[in-house]
């Protein structure tokens, strides 16, 4: 199980918000995490 799956099920809205921040601030953002949402 990916850590992002746990985060998504634990607090989906916060994960999405941090994922969007990651897209803006991290070049090495793991885009595969978005597929879980």
Overview of the structural elements:
- It is a single chain.
- The chain is mainly α.
- It has a domain at 1-25.
- The chain contains two helices and no strands.
- The protein has helices spanning 3-10, 12-25.
- α1 packs across α2.
- The protein is globular and about 25 Å long.
- The mean pLDDT is 65.
Structural class: mainly alpha
Shape, principal axes of CA atoms: globular
**Percent helix among the residues?**
55-70%
Mean pLDDT rating: 65
Count all strands and give the number. 0
Sequence stretches where pLDDT stays below 50 over 5 or more residues: none
Order of helices and strands: HH
Quick rundown:
This protein is mainly α.
Question: What is the secondary structure topology, with strand pairs?
Answer:
Elements: H1 3-10, H2 12-25
Task: Note the main attributes of this structure.
37 residues; mainly alpha; 2 helices; 0% strand
